[in-house]
Design a protein that fits this description.
The protein is mostly helical. The protein has a single domain, classed as Orthogonal Bundle (Endonuclease III, domain 1), CATH 1.10.340.30. Helices cover 50% and strands 2% of the residues. The protein is built from 11 helices and 2 strands, in the order ααααααααβααβα. Strands 1-2 form a two-stranded parallel sheet. α2 packs antiparallel against α7 and α9 crosses α10. The N and C termini lie far apart (60 Å). The C terminus is likely disordered.
Length: 204
C-alpha cells in the first residue's frame, strides 16, 4: 500500500476522521440549508472543546438531533432536553442543547423573513468564497470583521452560541472562506485555477 504523500494543513494530525474531514469537507462551499444548520449546531457544541471531540461525536449528534432537521428540533420540549442530557454520545451541556433548539426556531424565523438561510449567511462574504493566502496556522485569525458582523446579526435574531469566533469556525467549515494553507493540496482545488497570465503590452 502506497504511503499518503499529500501535503496537508497540519491541524488534522494523524486522526483518521480529521484527515477525511479535512480532505473532503472543510472549506468546501455549502449551500444545503440543513447542512449549514448542522455546522452551526456542531460549531456551537465545540465551544471550549476541540473540533476533533465533536467530529468523533457527529454521527451521534445526527441520530440524537433528527438529522439536524430544524423543523423537528424547533419542537423539542423539556422532556426531550432531559433525554438528550442523558445521551453519552453527545456533549451533555444543557446550555448547548437548549441553544440548538433556540437556533432551530431562529433559523425558521429567519428563513420565513428572508426567504433563504443560505443566501443570508453567504451575504456576509458577498455571495462567494473569500480566498485567503495563509502560509502558517499562526496567520489564521480567531475572528474577522465578517464573522463579527455575522455574529451580531445572528445574535440579534435570537441565535445562541454564535460569537465571532464560533462564526468564523463556521465560515471556515462551510466554505465561506478558504483557510487551507497555500501549500496544502486542497488550497488550489478550492481556490480555483490561477488567473491567466497576461503578456506584457508592446509599445510601438
Amino acid at each position: 500500500m502506497r504511503a499518503d504523500t499529500k501535503k496537508r494543513c497540519p491541524w488534522p494530525g494523524e486522526d483518521r476522521l480529521s484527515v477525511i474531514y479535512h480532505d473532503e469537507e472543510w472549506g468546501v462551499p455549502v449551500h444545503d440549508e440543513t447542512k449549514l444548520f448542522e455546522f452551526l449546531v456542531l460549531d456551537a457544541a465545540q465551544a471550549g472543546l476541540s473540533w476533533r471531540t465533536i467530529l468523533h461525536k457527529r454521527e451521534n449528534y445526527r441520530e440524537a438531533f433528527d438529522g439536524f432537521d430544524p423543523e423537528k428540533i424547533a419542537r423539542y420540549d423539556a422532556r426531550r432536553v432531559e433525554r438528550l442530557l442523558k445521551n453519552e454520545g453527545i456533549v451533555r451541556n444543557k446550555l448547548k442543547i437548549e441553544s440548538a433548539i433556540a437556533n432551530a426556531r431562529a433559523f425558521l424565523e429567519l428563513k420565513s423573513e428572508m426567504g433563504s438561510f443560505d443566501r443570508h449567511l453567504w451575504s456576509f462574504v458577498g455571495g462567494t468564497t473569500k480566498v485567503n493566502a495563509r502560509k502558517a496556522l499562526g496567520e489564521i485569525p480567531a475572528q474577522t470583521s465578517e464573522s463579527l458582523a455575522m455574529s451580531k446579526d445572528l445574535s440579534r435574531r435570537g441565535f445562541r452560541f454564535v460569537g465571532p469566533t464560533i462564526c468564523y469556525a463556521f465560515m471556515q467549515a462551510a466554505g465561506l472562506v478558504n483557510d487551507h494553507l497555500i501549500d496544502c493540496f486542497r488550497y488550489r482545488a478550492l481556490a480555483g485555477p490561477p488567473p491567466p497570465s497576461r503578456s506584457p503590452r508592446r509599445h510601438r
